[in-house]
Every structure is written in C-alpha cells, then in structure tokens.
Amino acid sequence: MLYRPAVSGICAGCGKFCKQGVGMRIALGIEYDGRAFSGWQTQPHGNTVQDKLNQAISRIAGHEITTLAAGRTDAGVHAAMQVVHFDTRTVRPLTAWVRGVNALLPHEVAVVWAREVSDDFHARFSAFSRSYSYFLLTHPVRPCLLAGKVGWYHQQLDVDAMRRAARCLLGQHDFSSFRAAECQAKSPLKHLQQLDISEQGGLIRFDLMADAFLHHMVRNIVGALLYVGKGSLDEAGLQALLAARDRTRAPPTFMPDGLYLTGVGYPAQFALPTQAEPARLALWR
C-alpha cells in the first residue's frame, strides 16, 4: 500500500491539521443505472449518484468524503465505467471500498474496483479520453424489458448512410452545433477520435471516443445521425451543420435512455482499468 505514515500536518481527507496521517488517495470504478437519479452531480435534494456515493463512502471511512469524477452525466444517462477519486485518512483494505461501500449503496449503483493511487492522480484532470456508447432500438413497438436502457426509434434506419456521414465528424472540430445551451465548457473545440456504428438484430450501437465531450454532445450527434438514417439530412447537410457552429440549426437532442459512459483513458503510470469489462456489457454483445 502507498499509505503515508502518521505525522502532524494537513490531512488530505479532512483538510484540517491532525495527527492521524496525511492520508491516501483512492480511485474507484463505478457503474450505475441513471434512471433512478437526477444525474451525477450533487444537488440539494440529494438524489444524485454523487450524493449516494459520498454518503456510503463516508460511513466506511468514518469521516466526510467528497468524490470527484471523470465527468458528469445527466439524468437518465448510465455508466459502465465512471471513475472517481477521494482522499481519506482512514486505512481500509481495498475490498472495504468495494464490498463495504456496495452494501450501503442503492442497487442502482455499484463500485466495481478500487485502487490506491498517487497524490498527483485526478479523476477528471488526469484523463486524456472518454468513451461513450449509445444503444438504439429500431422497431415499430416501443421497448418494455429494455425501457430506459436503450433509445428507441419506430422505423428502420439507413445505417450505411449514417456511417458515411459520421466520417465528417472525426478529428478536431468546433462542435458548437452539438453543444447544449447550458454547456459550461471553456472551449467548443474537441477531438473526436472514434465514431463507430454497428447493427445487430435491430439494435444500433454508436461507439464514440474523444479527449472530452461537450454537454449533450453525444446525444446531439446521435440525434443528427438519426436524421441522416431516416433521410431528413444527407452527408453534405451534416457537414454544413458542423461548419455552421449553430445549435439552433441542428435536430433536437435525442433521449438519454441508451447512453452509457463506458471508459476513461489515463496515463499508464496510474495502472487503472480504462474500459468497462466486456462481461459488464454482456447484454449488448
């Protein structure tokens, strides 16, 4: 373990002068069903993933904990690999940060792994990429068993046309046309490194990876590609939309139901998992 021996000083866990140790930093891999919560970030009513996680970890640690995440997710958006970190002055086996915390969490949230990391690790600022997947069911009848777990469109879509059009979005661009009005990102410039579209049995899967994403960026891209798939927007139209850098000219934001945060990339020095285990997404294979 990387535990720092007990000395007098500022405790990384409580932020106050104490003699219990200078603390340690723990990273966790989290998965959750976003339907039960009002998004990731803490809110006064307390019904967010961060609120529930902070409460559970604080009980195991024996002092107040605040987690910091790789990225925020909206209400209804899921995660198969959210990464968070927190500081604590309490020594616990790593299993306590997994099984112990899970025993105190609602069943819609689970800690999948725990690692002790160095003080220079930050769940958000150390990340160099984020990966999302969106699952879209195309069927005349709305889903029941998969309700809230997949997006839905009632007609078949031209997946080949969507693939061709999607190529124009790869690379570094100003994604203002795919940015929510309330987005707080300092710059609309993002580097989209991957946008793969696959189809199996009426289920269309979009896999995207970028250095970072703007608010609603994935859902807005999926919404625009759906317009391509149904013939309301062609490849040239999507290119023009990207170049316009104008959200008001774009199709509506698509539903959150089928969106999953599936991976966060970190430098090798931190030795952290960067993608959700295949078995965690076995339903979609």
Brief synopsis:
The protein has 285 residues and is of the alpha+beta class.
What does this structure look like?
This protein has 5 helices and 12 strands. Strand 4 (68-69) and strand 5 (78-88) form a beta hairpin. The two termini are 36 Å apart. The longest helix is centred in the first third of the chain and has 13 residues, at 49-61. The strands form 2 sheets. Strands 3, 4, 5, 6, 7, 8, 9, 10, 11 and 12 form a 10-stranded mixed β-sheet that branches. By secondary structure, it is α+β, with helices and mostly antiparallel strands. It has 2 domains: 9-15 and 22-126, 2-Layer Sandwich (Alpha-Beta Plaits); 129-261, Alpha-Beta Plaits (2-Layer Sandwich), CATH 3.30.70.660. Belongs to the tRNA pseudouridine synthase TruA family.
The total count of helices amounts to: 5
Instruction: Provide the β-strand percentage band.
Output: 25-35%
Reported by name, the CATH topology of the largest domain is Alpha-Beta Plaits
Provide the succession of SSEs: EEEHEEHEEEHEEEHHE
Query: CATH H level of the largest domain: which superfamily?
Result: Pseudouridine synthase I, catalytic domain, C-terminal subdomain
Distance between the termini: 36 Å
Number of DSSP E strands: 12
The gross shape turns out to be globular
